[in-house]
Specification:
The complex is a heterodimer of chains A (about 290) and B (about 350). Chain A is mainly alpha-helical. In chain A, about 75% of the residues lie in helices and about 5% in strands. Chain A has one domain: ABC transporter involved in vitamin B12 uptake, BtuC (Orthogonal Bundle), CATH 1.10.3470. Chain A is built from eleven helices and two strands. Chain B contains 15 helices and two strands. Chain B folds into two domains: about 25-270, ABC transporter involved in vitamin B12 uptake, BtuC, CATH 1.10.3470; about 305-345. The chains are: A mainly alpha (about 290), B mainly alpha (about 350). The interface between A and B is large, with 49 and 42 residues.
Chain lengths: ~290, ~350
């Protein structure tokens, strides 16, 4: 019982970080109808940036978010501008998917060139500090990471609900054609949306680097988890992805505690298969023609 | 422009395979045959991928899973203690059939979704297979790898059996492609690719043809994997189920022109030698990865439909305008311009 509750606590805290990564990915899908296979690579890129800022300049990993997030926002905007916007033709969706895959490979290549492929970890002084509450361990880093993810998600919510840009985004998600007819600049929304998605990856990446050992190839693990989360939540639904991330965080952590860590990866795959069999559009997904 | 088995097409195929048949006999530098084996391997893989990814428009990113399964099937049946000889080659059809049947339920589940999500599901398939290969240590040897029975061939002609096995598999893959294009299956797949809902509406048996294409494609890829495992002699999860192999198949089909008979072959014959050259020139695998990504991006951005369709279209346009000029400057009729490869074929 004790280990079960401990696993659930751990799962919720981890799930929060996944929620942040997945929200960016689902936002990108919502706006552009592009499954961003580079999201995992962007997270790893964020983690390496944090690593460099920490080891070279001694900047605290949590504070480095203030630097990495804007930086990757610009990278995201640039990627959309240079690589995704020029695509056209019948199968833009397919091409964009493959382009994001190529971006993932490129980022992996650049990172392995710069850092090599050994596993690294961002280890600030407080990395191993934890509280014991009623006999349950709560590590400081995980707890702050969870809170931070909540704050970032809150910010994202505010941006989407309260700003003019957010209104354009929501309009585009609901109906791109009408949004354009009503004067929404689709290109601008797409570029900023991709930037915003990359920014969430950066924020999550800084935290990811403290919670996990990583190397440039880690993005494969991440992307398979993120895709499961995003499909479970319903592609394009940010609320759905948050719920799904928490569910999957808890599920995989429980499986890992009760069975073995090997099978925690499989929870993701099994859930994905079940979702596709029973409810292909996910928990909160809208029925979009062409996507499902 | 009817794509019948024209004389030109037959001659083209005849010359292509004849040249490849005699290359080992004529001989050449030592690395030539080795490079060619991998080139033909990728041509076969990409042609097989093309059946589902090109003709049906379902871009599977997980086909390397079947490659890995085929490789491990060979590796497990002919593990180091067993004498292999030519037996692994004769067992290939069994492996191919087995994997084809096994892939049917997988295809059925994953093809409940369309393009994007289908890619997601198939990429997950890749991860599942790789995780299994790492963790089912009793069967696969895990990260330690699995050694395959050494092939007892003469040193001088050691590569020949593998070379011809790959060549036969390429011929089979291209033969099936050709059969698909000229049969009702190909027509049905073209409708699925164009508009699946409408195709379903007018009574095309979409699920059946998609599953046939998926299973055939998976079985072929598994057979190539079997030959590969016997050739390299030692298989590790990260190389047998390598995302780069998946991307190789997709990239080559895209470069040459997906949904065409010769596109994937052309793509392989351009990219694999280039790859070998890069590996020689740069050595470091990181740069190699970057170069791969760059080539990929360039193709997507500047040649999204591939080399062959672009050339065909340009030729058709030139021919149409020439015909127009002959008719005293009459403009070419729009219907003379093929708008997509499917229409060129039919």
């Amino acid at each position: 019982m004790h280990s079960l509750i401990q696993a659930i606590i751990l799962g919720i805290l981890t799930g929060g970080v996944y929620a942040l990564m997945a929200s960016g990915q689902t936002l990108i899908f919502g706006i552009m109808k592009v499954v961003n296979l580079a999201q995992g690579a962007l997270v790893v890129l964020g983690a390496y940036l944090t690593y460099t800022l920490f080891t070279q300049l001694g900047i605290d990993p949590f504070l480095s978010i203030l630097i990495t997030t804007p930086l990757l926002f610009l990278v995201g905007v640039g990627v959309q501008y240079v690589l995704l916007r020029p695509l056209h033709g019948d199968d833009v969706a397919q091409l964009s998917l493959l382009v994001t895959f190529a971006i993932a490979l490129g980022v992996e290549g650049v990172l392995s060139f710069a850092y090599g492929s050994t596993l690294t970890n961002v280890q600030p002084a407080y990395a191993n500090f934890s509280w014991t509450i009623l006999g349950y361990q709560v590590s400081l880093v995980r707890f702050v990471a969870f809170l931070l993810s909540l704050v970032m998600l809150g910010l994202l919510y505010l941006i989407l609900q309260r700003t003019k840009f957010g209104r354009s985004v929501r309009a585009t998600v609901q109906n791109p054609m009408s949004a354009q007819l009503l004067g929404v600049n689709a290109n601008r929304v797409s570029a900023l949306g991709f930037g915003l998605g990359a920014a969430t990856a950066a924020a999550a990446g800084s935290v990811f680097g403290m919670l996990n050992s990583f190397n440039p190839g880690s993005h494969y693990d991440l992307i398979s988890r993120l895709l499961t989360i995003v499909v479970l939540g319903g592609l394009g639904s940010i609320g759905g992805s948050v719920v799904a991330a928490l569910v999957m965080g808890v599920a995989s952590s429980v499986v890992s505690a009760l069975a073995s860590p090997i099978w925690s990866d499989f929870t993701f795959f099994i859930v994905l298969l079940l979702v596709l069999l029973i409810r292909p559009r996910g928990l909160f997904g809208a029925r979009t023609r062409g996507a499902l | 422009m009817k794509f019948a088995t024209t004389r030109a097409g037959l001659i083209r195929a005849g010359v292509f395979f004849l040249v490849l048949l005699v290359i080992p006999i004529v001989g050449g530098p030592g690395y030539l045959l080795n490079t060619l084996i991998f080139t033909i391997m990728y041509a076969a893989l990409s042609s097989s991928w093309n059946l589902i990814g090109g003709y049906a428009g379902y871009p599977s990113l997980g086909h390397v899973a079947f490659f890995g399964i085929g490789a491990y099937a060979t590796g497990i049946i002919f593990s180091d203690s067993v004498y292999g000889g030519y037996a692994p080659f004769f067992l290939l059809p069994v492996i191919g059939l087995g994997v084809a049947f096994m892939s049917i339920p997988i295809g059925w589940v994953s093809m409940r979704t369309r393009a994007d999500v289908f890619a997601i599901v198939t990429i997950t398939l890749l991860f599942i297979t790789q995780t299994l290969a790492f963790n089912l240590k009793n069967v696969t040897g895990g990260a330690q790898g699995k050694s395959v029975a050494p092939a007892p061939f003469d040193v001088g002609t050691y590569d020949w059996p593998f070379y011809y096995a790959m060549l036969i598999l390429l011929a089979i893959a291209m033969g099936i492609s050709l059969y698909f294009r000229r049969s009702k299956i190909g027509l049905s797949l073209a409708t699925v690719r164009a508009d699946e809902d409408k195709a379903h509406g007018v009574g095309v048996r979409v699920t059946a043809v998609k599953l046939i294409a998926f299973a055939v494609s998976a079985g072929l890829v598994a057979m190539v994997g079997g030959v590969w495992a016997y050739y390299v002699g030692f298989i590790y999860p990260q190389f047998a189920v390598d995302p780069l192999i998946t991307i190789g198949m997709v990239l080559m089909a895209f470069l040459g022109g997906r949904g065409t008979l010769w596109g994937p072959v052309l793509g392989a014959f351009i990219l694999v030698p280039a790859q070998e050259y890069f590996a020689q020139a740069f050595g470091a695998s990181e740069l190699y990865l970057i170069a791969y990504a760059a080539v990929f991006l360039v193709i997507m951005l500047f040649l999204p439909r591939g080399i062959l369709p672009s050339i065909t279209e340009r030729l058709a346009r030139r021919r149409a305008s020439a015909a127009g000029a002959a008719r005293d400057g009459a403009s070419p009729t729009p219907s003379a311009l093929p708008t997509s490869e499917v229409k060129v074929v039919r």
